[in-house]
């Protein structure tokens, strides 16, 4: 039952981020932002728009992670790391991801 709730929550998270897909997609394709192992979006090349986009998306992600963690009785950190790995796995070739040692690399 907990896994079902977790899966449904992840679907809801992905759907809630769909509204940002165009802006996020553009920022990723331009190499301005990338996915990190901690589940949050990182700024690769700091522009005001990239910093603002990352802050907005990261707040929404944190809110969603907190809801998922609370519903499933697990830590925020665990939810964030699971989501981070999924986001990195789904990152398209040519976009950036941050390695565990802190380096931005093109996937």
Protein model, in words:
- The chain is of the alpha+beta class and 107 residues long.
- It has one domain.
- Helix content is 61%, strand content 11%.
- It is built from four helices and four strands.
- It has a four-stranded mixed beta sheet with strand order 2-1-3-4.
- The longest helix is centred in the middle third of the chain and has 25 residues, at 48-72.
- It is globular.
- The chain starts with a helix and ends with a strand.
- The mean pLDDT is 87.
The fraction of residues assigned to DSSP E strands is 5-15%
Rg value = 14 Å
User: How would you sum up the global shape?
Assistant: globular
Write down how many β-strands occur, each being a DSSP E stretch of 2 or more residues.
Answer: 4
Overall SS class: alpha+beta
Any idea how many domains? 1
For the largest sheet, list the strands in their spatial order: 2-1-3-4
Query: Approximately how much helix is present in the residues?
Result: 55-70%
* Overall pLDDT score: 87
| Cα separation of the termini | 35 Å
Keywords:
globular; alpha+beta; single chain; 107 residues
SSE map:
Layout: H1 2-17, H2 21-29, E1 33-35, E2 41-43, H3 48-72, H4 76-90, E3 96-98, E4 104-106
Parallel strand pairs: 1-3
Antiparallel strand pairs: 1-2, 3-4
Helix pairs in contact: 1-3, 3-4
In short:
This protein has one domain (2-100). Helices cover 61% and strands 11% of the residues.
């Amino acid at each position: 039952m907990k896994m079902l709730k977790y899966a449904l929550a992840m679907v809801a998270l992905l759907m809630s981020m769909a509204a940002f897909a165009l802006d996020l997609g553009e920022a990723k394709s331009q190499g301005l932002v990338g996915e990190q192992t901690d589940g949050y979006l990182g700024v690769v090349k700091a522009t005001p728009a990239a910093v603002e986009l990352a802050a907005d998306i990261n707040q929404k992600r944190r809110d969603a992670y907190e809801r998922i963690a609370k519903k499933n009785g697990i830590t925020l950190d665990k939810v964030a790391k699971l989501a981070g790995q999924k986001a990195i796995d789904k990152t398209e070739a040519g976009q950036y991801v941050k390695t565990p040692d802190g380096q931005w690399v093109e996937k």
